[in-house]
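Folds abound. Consider this:
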Amino acid sequence: QVQLVESGGGLVQAGGSLRLSCAASGRTASTYATGWFRQAPGKEREFVAAIRWWSTYYADSVKGRFTISRDNAKNTVYLQMNSLKPEDTAVYYCAAGFRLATTDNEYNYWGQGTQVTVSS
């Protein structure tokens, strides 16, 4: 099994920045893909970004503002969020799977989520 723990969420003003972390433990593998998803109240869960090795993919809504990266030595994936907007407010989840994908049913392991709130 793989355990994922998100951290770094909080309250930030519009235009500000946050960095989310996803720390993995258990039967981890360097070949796993890691995705970030978010869910706002009353809305469906949506894809944000994903990484496998050096391949990355971003949702159009966050391109140019968010950056996903990996530190293999720490078994941690990061989501750097800049130029935050109120519409970025959501619970952010990290997930791990065997391949890079943009749909949540392709991922096998999930963290508990971390709240990001952007004030206007």
Remarks:
- The chain has a mean pLDDT of 95.
- The CA atoms of residues 21 and 29 lie 17 Å apart.
